[in-house]
Design a protein that fits this description.
The structure is a homodimer. Chain A is mainly alpha-helical. Chain A has two domains: about 80 residues, Orthogonal Bundle (Arc Repressor Mutant, subunit A); about 80 residues. The first copy, chain A, is built from seven helices and three strands; from the N terminus they run H-H-H-E-E-H-E-H-H-H. The radius of gyration of chain A is 21 Å and the shape is elongated. At the A-B interface, helix 1, helix 4, strand 3, helix 5 and helix 6 of A face helix 1, helix 4, strand 3, helix 5 and helix 6 of B. Strand 3 of chain A pairs antiparallel with strand 3 of chain B. The first copy, chain A, binds a DNA duplex (28 and 28 nucleotides) through helix 2 and helix 3.
DNA sequence: GTTGCCATGTAAGGTGTTACATGATTTA
DNA sequence: TAAATCATGTAACACCTTACATGGCAAC
């Protein structure tokens, strides 16, 4: 699984430039790439060399030429094959859990503060996601099934943070009770 | 946050060799590093150069010399400082969600199969974690508070996969209903 | 007049994985 | 006879991030 597949995914909807793709990645919450130039522009070169996309260069007067990439038949085939791959388990890296692993050296007040900070961060993130979800996001809309899929993808993120919030609140309570 | 902090964490309990550390990382589920040689042996060299650990070389007859690393006062200070850092949000990379994003191109039966595969994987992982948790794991045990922390760390993982399982089951039902 | 948008890219460095290399001892 | 354990390390490569570089136009 690499960013190239996600790029092919976006291009399967419409032709885009590197700049467009960068924005798509930055706006997306479920797609976990940051959308940095290095990755995107180099991926596009690779995809082009592999014949999975075509490139149309459109000159502009005062701005750099736009390079508009379109997916090819081979590209669509590669995308489909990747989507059919047996899914892998998520990769979850929660550095807060690592901090907690060695947090017994802290004073009660320090630990309490640490836990509260995490709780607040999770809460803020959750609210952000809920808001973004509520005001109907950038999801595609060409079939009932696709709408369902995108709704469920959003709900995955939200339920993750909701679950995390519950967990950290319980942690705070248990520590207080001790 | 890097693997060096986790290495200092382990060394804060007892002196260890690179080989020991490798095992610790491989056995741990919450610590998300795989414990590959390259990372561990290079980190130990760095930590030694920075004066955060000391090295004792003990020759052996037929095996390579054991290099036993111990944490220094500076090392303990660095560990404590890191634990006190404001916690960051978890990094969640779920490639299955990316697959779903472009899964509307699949036939109903293909999509159903994809979802089922993911459900099974999550279920297996959850059972594994629950089992590992049940037969009292490799958690440290020097204070009530530390026991509480480690119990809560395990419960974080378990509730994550439980939540993920619920989510994918709902997804399956909604797709069927469609 | 500074910030943001458009649009391309490169450089440098950190992080992480898989595989290679050696070689004796114990266990199945 | 094959494998796992002990114990060190290196090589090659993939992935990812931050910052740098250019430069015009529009908006506030």
């Amino acid at each position: 699984m690499s960013i190239k597949h996600a790029i092919l995914g976006f291009l399967s909807w419409e032709p885009l430039t590197g700049y467009d793709l960068k924005k798509r990645f930055m706006e997306s919450t479920t797609l976990y790439w940051t959308g940095n130039n290095n990755q995107i522009y180099r991926s596009l070169v690779d995809l082009h060399q592999d014949g999975l996309v075509t490139k149309e260069v459109r000159q502009q007067e005062k701005l750099p030429a736009r390079k508009i990439y379109s997916i090819t038949a081979d590209g669509r085939k590669a995308l489909r094959e990747w989507v059919l791959q047996p899914p892998e388990l998520p990769q979850l890296k929660n550095s807060f859990l690592v901090q907690l692993s060695w947090a017994d050296q802290l004073a009660d007040s320090e630990l309490e503060h640490l836990v509260e900070s995490y709780q607040e961060e999770v809460q803020v993130k959750l609210l952000m996601l809920q808001e973004q979800f509520a005001r109907g996001n950038n999801a595609p809309d060409r079939s009932a099934r696709e709408r369902l899929l995108w709704r469920r993808i959003s709900s995955n993120m939200i339920s993750y943070y909701q679950n995390e919030l519950n967990w950290v609140q319980e942690l705070g309570q248990e520590l207080e009770a001790l």
